[in-house]
Amino acid sequence: MSYEADVCIVGAGPAGTLLGYLLAKKGFSVMLLEQNKELGKAFRGEHLNEEGEAVLKSHNLFEAVEALGLLRMEKLEYCYNGHTIKTILPDPAVGHLGIHVPQKNLLKAILSKAQKISHFNCMLNTKVTRLMTDDAGRYVGVVALKDGEPIEITSQLIIGADGRYSTIRRQSQIDMAKRKHGFDLLWAKIPAPQGWEPTIKMALIDNKQLSLFTQTNGFIQIGWNIEQGSFPTLRKQEFIPFIQQLTKAFPELTETVAQHIQSWRDFVLLDVFSSHCESWGADGLVLLGDAVHTMTPTGAFGLNSALKDAECLAMLLTKESIAQFKVHIFQQMREPAIEEVQIKQIEKEQSFAANFLETAS
Fold first, then answer.
1. Which domains does the chain have, with CATH numbers?
2. Is 245 helix (H, G, I), strand (E, B) or coil?
3. Largest CB tally within 10 Å, which of 73, 166, 198, 323?
4. Model's pTM, two decimal places?
């Protein structure tokens, strides 16, 4: 089976989905491919900051997302031995310290608008296996398996929006420089106790960051930094002493933690690294989001940077220029902001413990 489109976007996460919608609105025929059978994978970055919020509002998408469910964070608390030692409140002009948006809500809101456009098409359970090139070496399409059956999609431009382990980046042989940050991350999700406020809470455990992010529908996401590469050894140790560190830091969670985090299997491990690529694409191909500049979870910048990438690329692409689009123009517009964010992440990681030094001493 063969298909044709102006643009083939690989990866139906926030960046790919937003880009597909914005390009379809401009009149491009869009084929959006996603290897999973459903959208909205768990444990992805789900916090909007002011920049991400502004992107959605500028394209009249925020209200649709809000109608499906989101939660504004009302304060940030630093906690030590079960007590709050510092509280940060939002700027009244902003009104929040981040917004939790379940990824499935974000994607559903965008797709519901995109799928009303006749020349937009989203294919799930479709895994790209190979890129196609013409005689001049320009990328002109992809070969994929849809529901296990081979298909081909030819396009004027291929977009790699397929995340930190991007197939498109690997297939196009674009080099990625990876930086480790000295820690990995354990994720877990638990029901919030009654009366829990929309808050981000931080603690320091063995000089590593422990974070609680309030979520919609009455949940808390736990992000627990551990020494890089230590989880195989850690999980051989007794679980109870480890989890008691969490309940010591946040005694109000003792009951819900006991009910919902009972073994190492109740955590999901994230291999933490950041990355950047010297080139953001090639003739006929562009990378964006985590595929070209992976972020660490620190500061929850990844989702917002990806949305900004999509908005910028959609603005640059025109029907007249797509066949000869120069990826370096996109890279020059977005790379300085990405470099700034990645520097800011390192600064936040290195200075986190300082929030507790006075109290701990």
1. 2-47+102-179+274-351 (3.50.50.60), 182-270 (3.30.9)
2. helix
3. 166
4. 0.95
